[in-house]
Design brief:
By secondary structure, this protein is mainly alpha-helical. It is built from 6 helices and 5 strands; from the N terminus they run H-E-E-H-E-H-E-E-H-H-H. Strands 2-3-5 form a 3-stranded mixed sheet. It has a two-stranded parallel ribbon with strand order 1-4. Helix 2 links the parallel strand 2 and strand 3. Helix 2 crosses helix 4, helix 2 packs across helix 6 and helix 4 crosses helix 6.
Length: 174
């Protein structure tokens, strides 16, 4: 949902006073396993392409820059939507659905640790540097509302990436 769409939704609720409330779940980058059918890894959603490129060796020469250093697992985001619809106290609120910080270098390290057979595909040494955190650090976030009102507990980056790689390994590349 774009900011324009979200603003239109809030305006509608304010102006029309419908018999329902609005709760909005705003995620950063969404990672996690695929559950829908893919006939090829080339049809993969943009968010998981970084994991695909690392595990297949497409990024071996240079770990891609991370750009956005916040993530959420798709399963946590899906649960957040359900909880926001089910819990009365969620009505009228915006939720930042974020698990934590990550960088592409960490994704490569998790893949190498959890899947030793893929280590030869991964960038190493200086080739990891572009995917690391910036020297000056990253920005903060506050997901307190999603934890306290929705009751969310978030999956770790490791769990998300391990499950993603397992799901991608089942897709036959054509």
């Amino acid at each position: 949902m774009t900011m324009v769409q979200e603003r239109a939704a809030w305006d509608f609720v304010t102006q029309e006073s419908p018999n329902f409330t609005l709760a909005v779940c705003n995620p950063p980058l969404v990672l996690g396993p695929i559950v829908h059918y893919l006939n090829s890894l080339s049809a993969l959603n943009t968010s998981n392409q970084r994991t695909r490129d690392l595990m297949t060796g497409a990024a071996k020469a240079s770990c891609p820059p991370t750009m956005n250093y916040l993530f959420v697992d798709v399963r946590d985001l899906a649960l957040a939507h359900v909880l926001a619809a089910e819990k009365n106290e969620a009505g009228g609120k915006r939720f930042f659905i974020v698990s934590g910080h990550f960088c592409n270098k960490e994704i490569a390290e998790i893949i190498g640790d959890a899947f030793p057979e893929l280590k030869g595909n991964l960038p190493t040494g200086e080739a990891l540097q572009p995917g690391d955190y910036p020297e000056k650090g990253t920005y903060g976030f506050d997901n307190t509302r999603s934890k306290s009102i929705l009751g969310l507990t978030y999956r770790t980056l490791r769990e998300s990436i391990v499950d993603t790689v397992k799901s991608l390994q089942t897709v036959e590349e054509h």
